[in-house]
Write a structure and sequence with these properties.
Strand content: 15-25%
Number of strands: 6
Mean pLDDT: 87
Number of helices: 5
Structural class: alpha/beta
Strand order of the largest sheet: 3-2-1-4-5-6
Length: 123
């Protein structure tokens, strides 16, 4: 059975990751709030692309009928990635979250990341 993966945010990183995972047989859905990025991703990947802000609870709730094996956050801001991971754990219990983290040196951020239960953090 194909792995179902949701990628939230990113442009070139999302494209590269989506193409790589699609080549391995995964089914990819990309969420991005920027309309230009969505157009670019829709034209350059075989993935389903949804133009919406993944930091808004209703966006992930609207996708709750989908079963994702993993949710990967690639937003440029750590705070957005943290919010998406927290929402994803609430909406998709048991789903693995993987996140791009730019700055782990902020002491106030580390406990918040631990609370999300994110499986992997990419630096």
């Amino acid at each position: 059975m194909k792995q179902q993966i949701l990628i939230a945010g990113g442009r070139t990183k999302a494209k590269s990751l989506a193409l790589s995972l699609a080549q391995k047989g995964c089914s990819i859905t990309i969420l991005n709030k920027n309309a230009d990025d969505c157009q670019y991703l829709a034209e350059s990947t075989p993935c389903k692309v949804i133009c919406a802000d993944a930091t808004k609870p209703y966006v992930l709730e609207d996708l709750s009928s989908s079963l994702f094996d993993s949710i990967i956050t690639l937003c440029p801001r750590d705070a957005d990635n943290l919010m998406i991971c927290r929402l994803a754990k609430a909406v998709f219990p048991g789903t693995r979250t993987i996140s791009l983290v730019s700055d782990l040196s902020k002491k106030r951020c580390s406990p918040a990341w631990e609370q999300t239960g994110s499986s992997v953090r990419l630096l």
